[in-house]
DUF3553 domain-containing protein
Amino acid sequence: MDDLNAILTPGMLVRHPDHPDWGLGQVQSNIAGKVTVNFRDEGKIVIDSFRVGLMPVFDD
């Protein structure tokens, strides 16, 4: 199975495709398929990169 978030690095902005209500998130770390993201409206969440592909945000 592929790591859907392999390109994400700390500081990048993302959105969760299934939870738009969480708002914009900032990647905190990306280690071994686990991406920790601090979402504006939900807080810190650990995402399994083998199950969820986060959407990078380049202009917000």
